[in-house]
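Just curious: can you write a single protein's sequence together with how it folds?
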Amino acid sequence: MDLQLDGKGALVLGASKGLGRAIADSLAAEGAAVTTVARSGSADAGARHIIADLDDPAAPTQILAALEQAGATIDILVLNSGGPPTGTAAATGPDQFAAVFGRMFNAQLALAQALLPGMRERGFGRILAVASTSVVTPIPGLVLSNAIRAALASWCKTLAGEVAAEGVTVNLLLPGQIATDRLSSLHHARAAAAGMDADAVMAHAMAAVPAGRFGRPEEFGDFAAFLASPRASYITGCAIKVDGGLTASL
């Protein structure tokens, strides 16, 4: 299937590794002109890379200025950021939420609102937010992720209804157990907290996935590329699980 992404401009946040990197790679493989954003790293051959830290309130302005200087048109925006620290609802206070809310919500909102007018004017746009299955079923020990991603999900759903008639779609991708550094770090943290062997924790987590394995980042990236394409023009306002059947809900 031709995803018809040749020449489409894409901006992928948090793209130095993990799911963001996988999405950037899949979009580029389909012919999109990809600009990546991360706190460090460099561009692949033929790509554009912006170094910016979404924890810095000035980051959205910095990113937009770099895009303008490069003359880049953005048709596809992938909202993504590193996961926050672990913690329980009872013990996580306002200061801890404030420490990560800027990068996980405010910066992404600012970029989406800045790039949205151009998408509407051109009659084509894709906003994809990389969230988590915690949007559907909160994950114990991840209260910061659970709560802030739920807020972003509600904003995306509201926006989807506002812009659908103008050729702009807004969807959420909900990864489950995808084999990334973030997943490994969570398993090791849980193992340490429980006094267990990390390999045993990972084996138990894998056994709980109906597919019998962890997902591959490239699988996730390929699905994101489809949602970003003109082929997916009638899919909007959706939160779609990519979890091998793990989440116990429709």
